[in-house]
Design a protein that fits this description.
8-stranded antiparallel β-barrel, mainly beta, 150 residues, Lipocalin, 4-stranded antiparallel beta sheet
C-alpha cells in the first residue's frame, strides 16, 4: 500500500488500482487486455472487439484494438472521481467513433456515437469468455449520467 494525494492507494494482483479516502473509494480500471462488444441501436447482434488499454493516474486513456470494421487506436480520458471513460476510437485510415461509458468496477458500459449512427457498448478486462454468457442478449441501459451530459 502506498499514498497519493493523502489517500491510501492499493494495487491488486489483477491490476486494479483502488484509491481510498474517508468519504469515497475510487478505482482505476486495470490496464491490459480488454474484450467487449458494441451494438447498433436497432440491431440485436453483438460486434466483438479486442482492445489493449492503458489507464494512467493522470487520467489518460490510450490503447489500440481490432473489431469487425478493422484495426483502431484509442485516445481519451478516464475521470476517476466520476468513474467515467471518454475516448475516441479511430480506425486506421478511416473514420472515428466517440465512446462514453461508466466503470462499474467490472465493466465499462455506455454509448457510442458516429455522425449518423449510435448504439451501446460494453467492455471488460480479459478475454471474451471472462465477461459474457453464450446466451447474453442486448439489454443495455445507457447510464443516466450519460443521458444528462449532452
Amino acid at each position: 500500500m502506498s499514498r497519493w494525494l493523502d489517500r491510501e492507494v492499493r494495487l491488486f494482483s489483477d491490476g486494479r488500482l483502488q484509491l481510498d479516502s474517508p468519504t469515497v473509494s475510487i478505482s482505476l480500471p486495470p490496464s491490459g487486455a480488454w474484450s467487449g462488444y458494441y451494438a447498433y441501436r436497432d440491431v440485436q447482434s453483438l460486434h466483438r472487439m479486442k482492445l489493449q488499454l492503458e489507464f494512467s493516474l493522470s487520467g489518460a486513456l490510450d490503447g489500440d484494438g481490432i473489431d469487425d470494421v478493422g484495426q483502431f487506436t484509442i485516445s481519451g480520458s478516464f475521470n476517476m472521481a466520476a468513474q467515467l471513460a471518454q475516448f475516441t476510437k479511430t480506425y486506421l485510415g478511416r473514420h472515428s467513433v466517440e465512446y462514453e461509458g461508466v466503470y462499474d468496477g467490472r465493466n465499462i458500459l455506455g454509448a457510442w456515437t458516429l455522425l449518423w449512427e449510435s448504439g451501446a457498448f460494453r467492455i471488460w478486462p480479459g478475454d471474451w469468455s471472462h465477461g459474457i454468457e453464450v446466451e447474453e442478449k442486448i439489454e443495455l441501459e445507457i447510464p443516466s449520467v450519460l443521458l444528462q451530459v449532452k
